[in-house]
Amino acid sequence: MQMQKLAGNDVLLDVRDLETHFYGEESVTRALGGISFQVRSGETLGVVGESGCGKSVTALSILRLLPKLTARTVGGEIRFHGRDLLKLSPREMRQIRGNRIAMIFQEPMTSLNPVYTVGHQIAEAVQIHTKASRSDAMAKAREMLRLVRIADPERRVNNYPHEMSGGMRQRAMIAMALACSPELLIADEPTTALDVTIQAQILRLIVDLKEHTGTAVMFITHDLGVVAETCQRVIVMYAGRIAEQASVTDLFARPAHPYTQGLMRSVPDRRHGRQRRLPEIPGIVPSLREPIVGCSFAPRCPFAIGICREKTPTLRDIGPGHAAACFRAEEVMGG
Amino acid sequence: MALYVLRRLVSTIAVMAMVGIFIFLLLRLAPGDPAAIIAGDTATPEMIANIREKLGLNEPLPVQFAHWAHSILSGNLGISIFTGRPVLELISQRLEPTISLAILTMILSVTIGVTFGILAAWRAGGLVDRTLTALATLGFSVPVFVVGFFLIYFFAIRTRWLPVQGYQPIDHGFGPWLVQLILPTMTLALVYVALIARMTRASMLEVLSEDYMRTAAAKGVSSYSMLFHHALKNAGVPILTVIGLSFAYLISGVVITETVFNIPGVGRLVVDAINNRDYPVIQGVLILASGMYVLINLAVDLAYTLIDPRIRY
Ligand SMILES: Nc1ncnc2c1ncn2[C@@H]1O[C@H](COP(=O)(O)OP(=O)(O)O)[C@@H](O)[C@H]1O
Ligand SMILES: [Mg+2]
C-alpha cells in the first residue's frame, strides 16, 4: 500500500494513517479518513483537491493547530525526523513550530496581527527560537524583507499590516515563516486570495526561495496548474483521503484516478487569461458526517462499477512512485 | 496627532462650558424662588432677601453666570450656605478618603476583571468561565448596599477580621488605611469587576478566533504571550472603554459606599449638602466630578491611539 521506495533516509516528514475528526453538536465529521504520505528533504510536494477535501486540516493536524475544543487527531502518526509529533509535549511542539516547520496561510489580509509592526512580528519569530537580541532580530527582519523582495525594507519594517497591500503582506508572511530557516514550509493556498498578477509573483518568489534555501515545501492548492509549475510530486485528495500520489510528470502523463482526470479537464487554459475557477466535476462531494460505504468518488465517477459501491479502495502501487486508490486504475490510466 | 490632541482639548473645554451652564441653571431654573428654597420653610422675608442679595440673585441671569463662571475659573467655588466655609475647603478636606476608595477600587477591578476575563475566554465554558458568569450575575443584580452589609456582617461582625466602619487617613500609616478600605473597596469593586471581566471575555473571545492568532501559534508563540500580548492588545479598545466608563460611574457608587461604611468622603459631603439644600456645595462637587469625568474620557480617547495603530485622527 505504501510506496516503500520513498522510505529512505531523506524522508523529512512521514505521515501514517492520519485521522482527524471534528466534533459537532450531534455529529462527527471525519475530515481525514486515514491518510499516509511523505515529504522528502528539499522537495516540493503538491497537495491538491477541491475545496473541503481536507487539505487545510492535514496542514493544521501536522502543526497541531486545530481548534482545541472541536477537533482532534484520533489516529495515526506524524513522524518528523522519525519523532512522532503527536507525542510531543506542548512545549516541544512550540519549539518545532515556526522554527523547523513553518506555515503560511491563505488570507494575507487577516493573518498578520494588526497591532504590531511587520518587523516586530518577524523579529518575534527569531527571538522565540534563537538567543538573538532585539536589535539583531530586527536586523534579521529587515534582511528577510529584502529576501522576499519588498522594496525599501528599512521603512517597511516599521509598517503596520494595514499600511501594506495584500501581496506585500503575503511576502511579509513568507519572510516571517522563513526567518528561522525551517526544514519544511507548509504553504496553504498562499496565492488563492490574491490578484492574478500578484499570484504569479508570489508563486515565483516561493519557488525561488525554495531553491535558495533548500527548504522542503508542502504546497497546498486547488489548482493543478499551480502544481505543474511548482512541484516535484503530488498527492491528490478527495473527501479526506488520498486518491492518487505520483510525480508531477507521471500525474500529468498518466493520471490513474478518475478524480484526477476530472480535475485535469477543468484546469483553465491560462493563455486565454481567464480567472481560474473551481474544478467542475459533475455531482457533489459526499458528506463526511456519515461513514462512506464503498469508494467516496463512486457517485461522481464515470468508471464506477459494482465493487466501487461496496468496498473502499486502498491506495496501491500502480507504477514506480505512482499509487492510486482505484479498483480500475490500470484501465483509467490506459484509456 | 498633535493636532488631534489640540482639537480634543478644545472640545473638552467646550463640553466643560456646557456642563458649567447646566450646573449654574440647576439652581436658578429650579421651580420657585431659589432663595426661598435655600432658606427653607421657616424663613422670614428678610432672611430670603438676605440670601438673595448674598447670591446675587437680583441681577440678570447672564450677569449672574458671568460672575459665577469667573469666580469658579479663579478657583473660588463659593461659600457653603450651611457652614459658611469655602466650598473648596470643604471638598478638599473630604477628598482623600474618596480618592483612596476610587483608586483602590479601580486597581482591584481592572486587575481582577481583566485577568478573570482573559482566563474565562481562554477556557470558554470551563470552570473559571462559569464562576465568572455566576459572579457577574451577582454583581449586576445585588445592590451595592446589600453587598456592603453582607460583607460587614461576615468579615467584620462575625469573624472580626476587619473593622466594621470608618476611615483612617494614610498619614496615620499605610497598614491601617488599607485595612479600613478593604471592605468598602470589595463592595464597590464587585460590579466593576463583573463589568470589566464580561467585556474582556467577550472581546478576547472574538480576538482568539482571528486568523492572526493562528499565525502566532504557528510561529511557536507561548500560550501566555498569545493571550497577554497578541490577543489582549487587540481586545484592548473595548476593554479600555469599559474601564473608562466604570471609573466615571464610580462617582455614584462612591456615595452609597461611603454612606454604608461611614467614610467621611466627598460622597457623604454631597448627601449632607443635599439634605441641607446647600446648593454651592452641590454645585462645587458637580463641577469637580464632571471635570474628572471629562478628563477620564479624554485620557481614554488618547490611550486608544497607543493601543491600536489603525486608529488615527
Ligand atoms: N472548524 C471546523 N469545524 C468543523 N468542521 C471543519 C472545520 N474545518 C474543517 N472542517 C471539515 O473538514 C473538511 C475539510 O476541511 P479543509 O481541510 O478546510 O478543506 P480544504 O481542502 O478546502 O482546505 C471540511 O469539509 C469540513 O467538513
Ligand atoms: Mg483550505
Topology readout:
The complex is a heterodimer of chains A (335) and B (313).
Chain A: E1 11-23, E2 28-40, E3 44-48, H1 55-63, E4 71-80, E5 83-84, H2 90-96, E6 101-104, H3 118-129, H4 134-147, H5 153-156, H6 166-178, E7 184-188, H7 196-213, E8 216-221, H8 224-230, E9 233-238, E10 241-247, H9 248-253, H10 258-265, E11 316-319, E12 322-324, H11 329-334
Chain B: H1 2-28, H2 34-39, H3 45-55, H4 61-73, H5 87-122, H6 127-141, H7 144-158, H8 174-208, H9 211-219, H10 223-260, H11 266-275, H12 279-307
Helix pairs in contact in B: 1-4, 1-12, 5-6, 5-8, 5-10, 5-12, 6-8, 7-8, 7-10, 8-10, 10-11, 10-12, 11-12
Bound molecules: adenosine-5'-diphosphate (ADP) and magnesium ion.
The site of adenosine-5'-diphosphate has 14 residues of chain A, from strand 2 and helix 1.
**Mean pLDDT value of chain B:** 87
- Catalogue the ligands: adenosine-5'-diphosphate, magnesium ion
Task: State Rg of chain A.
Answer: 20 Å
Radius of gyration of chain B: 24 Å
Structural class of chain B: mainly alpha
Low-confidence stretches of chain A: 1-8, 271-275
Largest interface: A-B, 30 and 22 residues
Please mark out the parts of chain B with pLDDT under 50 across 5 or more consecutive residues, or reply none: none
Average pLDDT value of chain A?
91
Number of strands of chain A: 12
The beta-strand count of chain B equals: 0
CATH homologous superfamily grouping of the largest domain in chain B: MetI-like
User: CATH architecture of the largest domain in chain B, please?
Assistant: Orthogonal Bundle
- Helical region count of chain A? 11
How many structural domains of chain B?
A: 2
GO molecular function, one term (chain A): ATP binding
GO biological process, one term (chain A): transmembrane transport
Subcellular location (chain A): Cell inner membrane
Domain ABC transporter (chain A): 15-264
